[in-house]
Structures are given as structure tokens and as C-alpha cells.
Amino acid sequence: MEIAGEKIYPIGLGTWHMGDDLVKRTAELAALQTGLKQASSTVKIAIDTAEMYGDGNSEELVGKALQSVSRENVYLISKVYPWNATKEKLPQSLAASLKRLKTDYLDLYLLHWPGEVPLAETVTALEDAKKSGLIKNWGVSNFDVSDMQELWQLPAGKNCAANEVLYNLGSRGIEFDLLPWLNKQQVPLIAYSPIAQGDSLGNQFLQDGGLQEIATRHGVSIFQLLLAWAIRDEKTLAIPQSSNKDHVLTNLAAAKIQLTKKEWQKIAARYLAPTKKQPLAVL
């Protein structure tokens, strides 16, 4: 898939909840390094973090992982708190993130969710950061259709390079209106929690015999099947989180799964698309 002309592997690395526990840090670092080492000069591996995640702990962990690979092969995404998205505070937040990440630029900088700071002010600050070379592109996260429409009315609003929202087989609400709107405007989707945090969101995927039948036929796990489903339109970047290096490799391998049209239809019939507007799901 592509974001702002950059070719990116459709499955990347999420880092929410990573970097907080010192006992887990060695395994977490190894997992991120394993994933990033799969990148190449032709197709980048994305890694997604935020100043919110552990109040910077995640960014520090990502910064360490970046030291083991070529920075040019990584598509680095971070996010700014809404209350830090002013003309005065955004440059300070960005500088702090870059310091923790041990890099001099971000590939993509996202407004983490809509806040009280006027969107026009935030876009101006993001455009200034882009002109300075500290970020290559900017986007948004947790924006619903009305938020995107407001953004599109701003002079530089259409420079938005992506929208990151919750999306998985058990949470298809965006397919009614937001996803069609993004597709029409050619705005890529970044799907967080693409495997619904395992079965923790109550979807019970592992107990679904129909999914297991399809997964077994292709020699993959149900979670790999969920990832393949999330990126099926080739316009979506999925960012599953894993602290296990073997799981990271199996996550990345899910991008190579090819299902038949009948199999896609069978999955869709078991987890129905929305038939009316739903509130934007968030975690």
C-alpha cells in the first residue's frame, strides 16, 4: 500500500502499551527489531507510536529499536496530544518525540484525536513542521466523517495523508460512511487493533469454526486471517502490536495470504457490515 507516495508494507508494528514494564523491555525490543529488519529500500516497514503511549516510554523503546536498522527503510509514525496541537506547543511536543525516538524527522505525524484546539491552528502548526523538514507528512487519528469534512474545508486540510482508526472484523462500523468517504478522497486508512486485541474485545474469533476451517485450509492462524481481512482492499495499513518476535513474523506473513472470493464472502456473512451509521469506535 502507499501513503503520500511512499510504498509501505501493508502490515506494520503497533506499540501501544509497550515500553512501560522493564521486565518486558528486552523481549519487546527484540520483537520490534525483528519486525524492522524485514524492511528494505523498496518497501518500508511502518512502526506506529505516540507521545501518549506510556508518556513517552513507547517512543523511547522505538528509538532504541531504530538504532539497529537503516532509518530510511522505516516508515515512522507518531502522534501529538490534542491539547498540545497549538502553534506554540506542537513544535515542543514534536521536538520531545524526535529526541525520544533518536531521529531528526517523522514520516507521518498524526493529531491523536479531535480536541478543543481549533483545527485550523493545528493544521497550520503541522504544515509549519512539514516545511521545516521535521515531518514528511501529517494526518489524523480517530476522525469520523464530520471531522474529516471539517478538515477538508481548511485551505491545507486536504494535505492530510492518512486517518488512523479502530478497524477489525468485529468492528466494521466505519464501512458504512467513513471508509467510503476516505476512499473517495483517496485518503489511506491505518487500522489499529486489527486483530481486536486477540479475543479481549469479546469477539470470540478463536471459537469460530468457520474461520478456523478457512485458516486451516490456508495453513495459517485465525489471527493471521484477521490481518489479511483488514488489508484486503490494498489501501489499508494494519498495525498489530506484539511483544513476541515470532508473532511479529507471523503477523507480517499474513500479508501474503490470498483467499478466494467465496472465502471472503463467507467471512463477511459471519460478521456483517453495518447497515446504518454507527458512532466511531475507539479504545
Automatic annotation (TrEMBL):
InterPro entries: AKR, NAD(P)_OxRdtase_dom_sf, NADP_OxRdtase_dom. CDD domains: AKR_YeaE. SUPFAM superfamilies: NAD(P)-linked oxidoreductase. Residues 10-269 form the NADP-dependent oxidoreductase domain. This is Aldo/keto reductase. It comes from Candidatus Enterococcus myersii.
